[in-house]
Amino acid sequence: MGKPNCYGDSDYYSETSRICNACGYRADCKAQVNKDAHRNWSNPSKTTKTKQTNGAIGPIMPTGSSHLGVGHSVYNHGDALAPQFMRYVAFSIFESTLEESRVLVQSMRNNYTQQQIQASTPLVEIAEPKKEK
């Protein structure tokens, strides 16, 4: 059996979808969707506009609902770095633990669902052919 028609299509893929979670291609599909999400689809123009600044360098702050991921921490070099580092490490560990917990719970749910389907599927006995003497 080949890949489904929805394979790698971000319009259909959802990590919380029961259909996606029951699909055998979900890990490869997720990787394909993520790869396409980070692709630059626009054509960069030859003339780029630069924004005016006041000459001061400020911290990079997330805008809207976006968040800083692992490896994108913003450090203030005017303060002690060790406490900042430890706090970002704690955030990263907590975030990774939550993500792995979510994946584990989804896996447990899928396994339970598969067991329930197998338990409720009637078994058909196939009669063995009679042996000739």
Description:
With 133 residues, the protein is an all-alpha fold. Among the domains are: 37 residues, no CATH class; 41 residues. It is built from three helices and no strands. The radius of gyration is 25 Å and the shape is elongated. The model has no long low-confidence stretch (mean pLDDT 76).
Provide the succession of SSEs.
HHH
Helix count from the secondary structure assignment: 3
How would you classify the helix and strand content by structural class? Answer: mainly alpha
Residues in helices, as a percent range: 40-55%
Radius of gyration: 25 Å
Averaged pLDDT: 76
How large a portion of the residues is in β-strands, by DSSP E?
A: under 5%
Shape: elongated
User: The biggest beta sheet, please?
Assistant: none
What are the segments in which pLDDT stays under 50 over at least 5 consecutive residues? none
Q: How many runs of DSSP E, i.e. beta strands?
A: 0
Kindly, what is the distance between the CA atoms of the first and last residues, rounded to a whole number of angstroms? 42 Å
List keywords for this structure.
133 residues; mainly alpha
In short:
The chain is mostly helical and 133 residues long. It has helices spanning 18-22, 26-37, 81-120.
Furnish the topology, listing elements before pairings:
Elements (H helix, E strand, L loop, with lengths): L17 H5 L3 H12 L43 H40 L13
